[in-house]
Amino acid sequence: MEAQRARLAMLPPENLTGAALPLREVTEQVENALARAGIEVVAGEAVERYLHRHRIRYTAGIDGADAAAAREDLGVDGILVTWVEVRGEGPPPRISLAMRVVRAADPAEIVWIDTVALTGDDHPGFLGLGRIGTLRELERMAFDRLGTSLGEFLDGKAPRSSPCGRARSPGRWHRSPDFEKSHPTAIVVLPFANHTSRRGAGEVVALQLARQIMAVPGLQVLEPGVVREELLRHRVIMQEGPSVDDLLVLGATVRPDIVIAGQVLEYDEGSVARLGVSVVALDVRARRVIWRSGTQARGTDGVWFFDDGLVALPTELACQISRGVVDRMLAGMGAQPPVSPPASSPAPTR
Question: Bridge-partner residues for 87, per DSSP?
Fold first, then answer.
């Protein structure tokens, strides 16, 4: 008999595009893609009632109490968080999406994460026959790709995250030579300080870094909704990154081993994608910096013939830069098995 898949509650998609988003249309596409992948989700009015009952307005993440309440109220095993990062008609059309599943329990825990970034010109092929001319078609492809990835994870056929296909080495970096590689390691990735005019750039880059860390077995990234709740509760505001006092607050509440922060210095979605990022990591127990790096990247870097290797979106540059940082900063870490899918359970009875 085939094992029952976990049941998920789908929060309304979060708009990080910097422009208006047709929320109903995007929500419908997410639901349809998950249905095609055979994933059972609770959405619509049931989720709206749950959000209203618990006075939840922020849907880009979830804290432990609200995650546990979703299990009780909706009879789900996990919560699906969707970010729309780039969405444009073009030409060419562009779409960049991120999804993660958070266990419906307290503490809230990320169990799966994936991202996709596509443009209509990614694979033009012979005489341009492979070009995709409409945003609708490109969106279906992107959502289907994420739905397939999630379905394979829920079936135990795919990891909780996968590394970016290409790593970009940091332009300059330093790792503390006596950084102790202890296990297990809980990591907090704070939203990066955004020094650009692009709304949401700090959150986009931080999530890409979290995805690359999650691709290392045995390392766990704290759910951003939990971090946000703790920072708000203690009225912590970080304009340029965490201070020692901020670390003490986080260390006393969410108890991470490592806190990672950074800055987005350039984020350009023009004809040539550009991204400038600095990253700093701190050992909470030792109260010291263990990593610093800075990277400036362009989508045309290393491209010589026929646009092979061209990167059209800064979100994909963020993926590649993040893998380069993780490969060096956390080299040799990760020895535990990956986090398992949220176990399916019957809906609670009342």
Answer: 95
